[in-house]
Amino acid sequence: MTQHFSSVPAQPTSSRRRFVQITFACVAGVPALVACSPDVAKFKSTDVTGATFAENLRLKDQYGSVRTLKDFKGKIVVVFFGYTQCPDVCPTSMSTMAEVKRLLGAQGDLLQVLFITVDPERDTQPLLKEYMASFDPGFLALRPEPDELKGVATDFKIYFKKVLGSTPTSYTMDHSAGKYIFDTEGRVRLFSAYGTDAVSIASDIKILLSAV
Fold this sequence. Notes:
It is a single chain. With 212 residues, the chain is an alpha+beta fold. It has a single domain (4-210), classed as 3-Layer(aba) Sandwich (Glutaredoxin), CATH 3.40.30. The chain is built from six helices and eleven strands. It has helices at 14-28, 31-36, 89-103, 125-133, 149-156, 198-210; strands at residues 4-5, 46-47, 59-61, 66-67, 76-82, 111-117, 140-143, 160-163, 172-176, 179-182, 188-192. The strands form two sheets. It has an eight-stranded mixed β-sheet with strand order 2-11-10-5-6-7-3-4, covered by helices on one side. Helix 4 links the parallel strand 6 (111-117) and strand 7 (140-143). Helix 3 crosses helix 6 (198-210).
């Protein structure tokens, strides 16, 4: 389920493929939960209803305010991990979410996108504020401190790795590229793989909203 990408194209190694398979099992938790979900045939994304993780999320956003999932009760929350200097996967994913919000029309106000940086060393609050504004002013960026990042990644069962460059500041980040979708009660419900189109994601969100 979890996909991870380098910021430069590369062929996936067998170890990376194995990581994806293992992470899928971890996030899904009990496979039977997916099979039992009544909406499994309707969703375009992978149904992970019943999984429990990231319940204690507590990070500062680009404005310096501490955020938790409880802050967004009543909204659909989409969580994506990335970094501002990512040249491809991240801007593509964020642009997709901006299109999803547009497709939702009046229900777009019930969508909250959370971008969690995997590069807190370079992604300062001012930079994250500028980056979010380039996609949608309502999107929020969360920044863990460098010593918090590993714990946050573990809570979300996502992968990240610094890939050293020619200088200390020219590194890139390999990272998971999918999106987690939480329902209006703060429960993780879906995993949307990288490359899922905006129409499909919007359709899934409408299904979740219709159950409210």
